[in-house]
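Following up on my earlier thread - several people asked me to post the actual chain instead of describing it. Fair enough. Here it is, all 387 residues.
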Amino acid sequence: MLTQSFADAVVEAEKIITEAPHVRTEQELLEGYDYLAGSIRAALQMAWAYQRDFPYFARSTGPYTKLGLDNPDTLYFHANIRDDAEYVVSGIRGSTADLSFQILAGDYSPVDVPDSVTAFDDRDIEIGADGSFELRFGPGKAGPNYCTLGPGSAMLVVREAYSDWATEKPGVLRIQRADRIGAAPPAPSRETLAKRYRAAGKMLINRLNTFLAFPEWFYLKLPVNTMTEPRSTPGGLPTQFSSAGHYELDDNQAMIVTVPASDAPYQGIQLGSMWYISMDYINHQTSLTTDQAQLDPDGKIRFVISERDPGVANWLECTGRRRGYVQIRWQRLSRELGPEDGPDVEVIDVRQLAERLPHYEHARTTPRQHAERIAARQAAVASRMLG
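Reply from S.P.:
Thanks for posting it. Predicted structure:
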């Protein structure tokens, strides 16, 4: 059977899910099966999108293909490339808070993070008055809007980060291999399709093993209910810093995360499940950007992570999960961040909120107002996913 290799990989992948070391409850196992479905879809998409001679940008993640603590505020795109060919990337700059480009050598694996060959944002390129741009990536010498591909360059990743979901608009993005424009690839043979099914199976297993290992590297060795000082994101962009942590809370507990509102164009916080993926950010408030959050009069943002509704605007919903990950990102930075830019964390009884939040009355919100915020999220994500 042409698909047997992929079918065998799915069986192996299910075993990885059922034997994952963090699974304690039936809910966590069912979440794993849901994660598996998205991973199967993503593996097939990535295998068929692997077109280095006739590339196009594929969505790397989405609501149904999550991985790697995907940022709810970001649209991720990728294209596979060769280090000895030249590629033309053109489009129109949207109004998002950040647009960045990164070249990776190799891929993520259970033992390593791929090298970042180069990374930059749109401040480093020439953009027309109408927002149009054209970049070239290839083996030639670097120059205006030309990026030299170093040895081993294998993937171009593009990120569009939103701070205000309601008003910011996506751009237009396309990629072509320069010497293949106007040509067409050969029709797939039986051998080619068999190879793609094998590749999809390997991607599936690697994907699951890799991102189950990630939390051990960067999160789980930290004390629970704490967050790190801002640091350059491992394997990320040079203009991005992050603060990471993991929490474990009872139903009557809340974690207050206090952080200054920075001058970075993008600053956002999110929760993640133990499968190291974003929680439902469409129908629940499991993430907030500076534009979405309520700022206190002292210039700080105070987030409340809890299962019970604390009645404040910056509530981050645990959605039935006692354990999870929490991360803050700052992007498009013009300076390095220090400890004073990072979060303070306190775990309290939910009933103590009024006395522990210095601007509690300012922060209060009603169930109706919260429902309105959720409705706005649903509408914004629906519009963004059509972009």
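The helical segments are 4-18, 26-48, 190-218, 353-356, 360-363, 367-385. That should answer part of your original question.
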